[in-house]
Amino acid sequence: xxRHSWPSTTLRVTLVTAAALxxxxxxxxxxxxxxxxxxxxxxxxxxGELANLQQPVLNYExxxxxxxxxxxxxxxxxxxxxxxxxxxxxxxxxxxWRETTVDLxxxxxxxxxxxxxxxxxxxxxxxxxxxxxxxHYSPSAGTTLQFGQDLKLQHAFYGWIEASFSNGIILxxxxxxxxxxxxxxxxxxxxxxxxxxxxxxxxxxxxVRREYLRRLDDLKARTGGRRxxxxxxxxxxxxxxxxxxxxxxxxxxxxxxxxxxxxPLYPEDVQKQIVxxxxxxxxLSRPRPRTDExxxxxxxxxxxxxDSAQIVLSIFRDDQDLYAHLAAAQQKYRSDxxxxxxxxxxxxxxxxxxxxxxxxxxxxxxxxxTAIYVYQFAPDWRTYHFQELPGRGITSRTALEALLAPxxx
Length: 409
Prior knowledge:
Blueprint: H1 18-21, H2 34-40, E1 57-64, E2 68-77, E3 80-81, E4 84-91, E5 96-103, E6 109-111, E7 114-116, E8 120-127, E9 130-138, E10 141-147, E11 153-157, E12 159-164, E13 169-174, E14 186-190, E15 196-200, H3 207-223, H4 226-230, E16 240-248, E17 253-261, H5 268-276, H6 278-285, H7 291-305, H8 309-313, H9 320-332, H10 339-344, H11 351-361, E18 368-377, E19 384-390, H12 397-401
Antiparallel strand pairs: 1-2, 2-3, 2-4, 4-5, 6-7, 8-9, 9-10, 10-11, 12-13, 13-14, 14-15, 16-17, 17-18, 18-19
Helix pairs in contact: 6-7, 7-9
């Protein structure tokens, strides 16, 4: 079992100016009014029910449940965006509207231990009777505001929702300063009390994570930290990303996928080769891939090579015939107009050519290593136990859900 306390440090993020954010919205004079947006969504609102019905709206997001409709938005002004966030909610059974506002002007303010900053409303969730608006203000950072049934601002957390349970327990991915390689943190948040705790990554670590950390430490030791600096890997960071996430109410279980980024561990030439042939490698890895699909993936990858073609194609030098055809194709085929002719070419339909591609490209190291984490929470949601499982072969939500215990009837 693991117990954790609230973080004691103040969280800060990169600030985005109103002028920069204004580029996210539609340009004047084509900016739609709130009335037009609602009409397009087939939601009615009469004059007098909403204060901003005829105002131009920007950076808006909508959400619907079985009994509520919500829209979060900003108002466009001649000199930019009004830094007030508006939230309007319609009771679909009664046909009545409610609305509220949050002043986001100024800088350096926090609310409920989260950074309160002006940002585009890029997510809106209705969970139970609560509304959650994610305000996105840098590539990997933003704050989620929680509004109660009375639309009063209740809580805030520094990140975005990944999953939830029906009792209002939220799983959110915490925001972080943006860099080339980042680590995903998953937190549990109780919308009823505001309690929050980090649940991933926490010790004891499983084999996949321990081995990954060992390889990172080895890289740092061999390069004296130089490769860390080149790849913008911060102290204590294990580059990873969160994938599919599923929950099961009856057993209070959570399962999610984590992909550990192996690219910083490889020399630059290998990194370029993996990136350059990404689509083709993925196509070759599919069950029973079709030849025409593989060739189309290859064409797409060849077009993207540009200046790194010599480095990228060097992995085929042992097969001079294949290397020569790839080099010629990379130089000649640069547009979608020529794709069909490329696919129909007899050379690229040959079984031995496709097998040559498969042999070389699938010998490249993997770009990621995946693991599955399965959690079960105690009835008070303050304690839990978890296990790490190998992630290979788990590619769908159905497969992930199969790892959870059957729901109790």
